[in-house]
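Summary for the steering committee. The consortium agreed at its last meeting that each partner would contribute one worked example illustrating the joint modelling workflow. Our contribution is presented below. We chose a case with several input lines so that the handling of multiple components could be demonstrated. No manual editing was applied between input and output; the record is shown as generated.
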Amino acid sequence: MQKRWGLMSLERMSVWMSGLFILVFLVCLALLLEMSRSVSQLSANRSAQSQALAENLQFFSNMERLIVLGDQMLSTVERQQQLEHAVAVQALLFHPSIQSRLSLSESSQQLYQRITHISWQLSQAAEANDPKDFFAFRRDALESWGEVRQALKRISTDTSARLVSGVEQVSQGMTALTRQLIVTAFAAVLIGLCACITFYLFFRFKLYQPIMQVYRHLLLSKEGRGAEVPLINANSQELEQVFEVVNHLLDARRSLEYISSYDPLTGLQNRRALIAALGRLVHGDSQRKRQAALLYLDLDNFKAINDVMDHSVGDIFLQHIARRISDVLGEGATCARIGGDEFIVLMPQIESPEQAKVKARQLQQVIARASAIGEFEVSVTATVGISLYPHDGFNSDTLIKHAEIAMYHGKSLGRGMIHFFDERMNVQVSAQLQLESDIYKACKNKEFELFYQPQVASDGVTIVGAEALLRWCKADGTKVLPPDLISLAEDNGYIHEIGAWVVNEACDTLSAWQNSGIDLSLAVNISARQLEGYHIVDVVEQALARTHIRPERLELEITESAAMQAPEVTAVCLERLKKLGVKLAIDDFGTGYSSLAYLKLFPIDKIKLDRTFVKELPGNARDQAICSVSIGLANSLGLTIIAEGVENQAQLSYLAEQGYQQYQGYYFSRPVALDLFMQQLSIANPPSEDPSTWQSRV
Amino acid sequence: MTRTKVVLLLSQIVVALFILNYQAKAGRDVVRIAITGTAKPFSYTDDMGNFVGFNVELMNAICKFNAWVCSFEVVRFPEVLPALEQDRADIGVGNFLYTPERAARALYSDPYWRSTSSFVGVKFDNDAPDKRKCAIQKTQQAAYLERQEMLSRFYPDNNVLVQALLTGECDYILLPTLQVLEFLQSEAGAPYGFHGTPLFDQGLGGDVHILVNAQQPARLGALNDALSELHKQGVYERIMLKYFPFSIR
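What follows is the complete predicted structure of the assembly.
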């Protein structure tokens, strides 16, 4: 019932209020008209009554005057005075003020005659010489006047009574009317007052209070104190809708504010909130007395989790990491997620850098714990870069940048490290950034080139294939070493673009050879990053389709260590590549921590014995053993084996004795440009030789 | 000049103009009153040579109330109405009863007393058709006598009419009852008295009015307001009882 009354529609209430006001207006108008009518009636009645009273008063007054004049007429003996009074009495008797009343009771004619007779008697008495006659006339006159006087007095008294009665009636009428007017006025005032109170209550409780609620709620919401004045009592349907909308809008604003400051996945602050917090810290420390630390955490190899398992698994893992980080933050510290797998922990007050290092280590420990997510068990390490305030910077951008540089420096030295920022890192990073920029330009401007190192047959002369190696000669003539290039390309993502270029370039070379009747294989190196996401499969497939080369002439080499980084991924990728018909080789064989089971799993065609095992041949017994085992393994598995790094005849001879079929190394040639390689080819493989014999050697 | 000063200055100018206007108006507003001069006790010259009477004192009170400067011009009754018509007077006082003919020529004030007409002749004399009956010219009484086809004569004013009675030129005179009161109360009038009952009908009695120039309706309004106010203040009653032994309203 309360709710139903409280939530009446404003529109309906306004209709009711309008009706109420019209009703009140009409009632007040009616009361006003009634009062006016009463007053008019009173005025008219009063006027008539006043007129009547005036007439009666005039009559009464003149009647009394008539009696007095008559008394004076009889009381005086002086003739002139008698005459004056007698004439006055006669004149008064026939004045209209007397005439209109006397005709109702006493005949004025008779009175006039009697008074005339009395006057005559008095005049006779005045003229009488005999005292007897005088007294007789006077006596008669007195007797006659006595009777007339009585009659006049009766009339006068009667008139007086009527006057009093009339005044009384008027008074009563006035009183009654006054009472009526007072009651009417009071009723009108009361009705008006009730209407005003009703309107006031309506206005206050149905409009003012809810609107003020909204106002105060909005005002306090700006300060985050909106809950102190909740929007609950709308008191009408329309305002309830307004409340709802306002609440929605505020909720939306809070959500936006939350989204703008917090990472939706982990619930941690985001970069914007972190920068704001840093800004507050810096601005609040005008005298630079405080010491703070910024810990830049990057999860090592997190991308593999997304690629191998699923992004949903990666997301859940990040949430676990975020929770663990939050659990060990400590008082005052905050954590923000600023990138895919990058976090920054802000320690606003530290006693010494060692405290930051201890915290970093603690964070690494909790991050390194394995997480069970579905059927997977996931774990990563974290590299931490630390910058110190104010030592390493006075503003948020500088501090973050320096922490990041320290982190990248740690990554470059080996993952899972903790490094404090050093100004020298800045120099390195600058150089690295410059190199990244150069790589970008190189990709655009096609500054890369493939050099070719021949792979020779067991006769040590015949070229059976080649390995294509990436070279970069920058526009300024500077040459960048391949390891630096590959490492940086893997870090900044350019490896895919560069790798695609290498594959396509190699396929173009193979196509040219094929068209020229040169039947050689050409090997290109594939990095572990290229295996992630299996993009390399698409690249090779497209290149093969474009160039129409024999796929078995293309050989893809992957180092053993790279293959073992994510064996499952490697296996899947190699299978797909194998289906395209290309050849697969394990490079730097013997240097990685390969499991023989995985080796069996990989669909490889060739293994390349690492140069480190050839370098000290034939003198090093261990190397001899390794070479022997390797050839045995290859033969057992039906794989082709090639020895890398052959630099002298002794090595060649030893390896030949062991049964190695192919060799590669400076002894034969260093990697050279294509035109030089073609010259070597023409010398080593004269055109007259049967191409089919080459194939048997591959 | 600031706005306040301008407003003050304008206010002072307006007030000054109002006062000047009032004063000018008061100074210029001379009211010409045409009044009969021989109708005692209404308007007459006393033994000291002063022009007095009920009508005179009443008009003086009205002029004072309206801040008029009144000047009295004594004329005979038949000349009062023409004076108003010819704009030689603003107000005409002569105890006028209402007639439609007069109302077409001048404005009638509110009634200020009630009158009857009476025949006055020798006491106890008996009327006869050959008796000469006289009245003041151009009065209702004169009109009555003419209508009755009585043997009649008309005289210009009250005094002449009374004189005609005294000399025997008239056997009876017909005039307002109160207008002959003084005469009957005098020694000369002792042998005479009212004959018959006072006449009220046929225009011989009723409300008595003051006439106002037909071109001055505003003056009429002021006159009536003054009459009303004088009644309220009791000034009228005092003046009336000074000249009459009873109320004549």
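Chain B is about 40% helix and 25% strand. Residues 3-28 of chain B form the longest helix (26 residues).
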